[in-house]
Amino acid sequence: MPVFTSLYHGDYEPVDEAEVDGMPIIGTFLVDRIVSFNVFSCPRTSLENHSAKLTSEPHHHTCGIFIKASYINHSCYSNARRSFIGDIQIVRATRNIPAGSEIVFW
C-alpha cells in the first residue's frame, strides 16, 4: 500500500492514523485523489486506438493505475510514447534521450 499512497495526490492531507482496532485505515478520499491524478485511460490495444473511426457513438476505454508510469510527467515536447496490450503499458522512446534526462509523455 505505501507504493500506491506515495503517488501524487495534490494538496490533500491524509489522516495520521495507520490503524484502528488493529485494522489498517484506507482513506477513500486519499484513494480518490490518487486515482484522479494518476489514472491512465487506455484502449484494449493501441491498434484499436489508432484505427478508431469517428462516430457519434461513445468510445469507452478501460483505465488503470500504472505505478512506475505515474512518475512520468507530461510535456508538449515529449520524448516517449505509451502503448497498450491488454493490461500492459509499454513506454518507448520517440527520439534519443540523453542520460540523466527526464522521460516525458505527450
Word description of this protein:
- It is built from three helices and eight strands.
- The protein has 106 residues and is α+β, with helices and mostly antiparallel strands.
- It has a single domain (2-105), classed as Beta-clip-like (Beta Complex).
- The longest helix is centred in the first third of the chain and has 11 residues, at 28-38.
- The two termini are 28 Å apart.
- The model has no long low-confidence stretch (mean pLDDT 84).
- The radius of gyration is 17 Å
Number of domains: 1
Report the order of strands and helices: HEEHEHEEEEE
Distance between the termini: 28 Å
- Give me the CATH fold name: Beta-clip-like
Proportion of residues in β-strands: 25-35%
Low-confidence stretches: none
Which descriptors would you attach to this protein?
alpha+beta, elongated, 106 residues, Beta-clip-like, two-stranded antiparallel ribbon
SSE layout and pairing:
Layout: H1 2-5, E1 19-20, E2 23-24, H2 28-38, E3 39-42, H3 46-50, E4 62-65, E5 73-74, E6 80-85, E7 88-93, E8 104-105
Parallel strand pairs: 5-8
Antiparallel strand pairs: 1-2, 3-4, 6-7
How would you sum up this structure in a few lines?
The chain is an alpha+beta fold and 106 residues long. Helix content is 19%, strand content 26%.
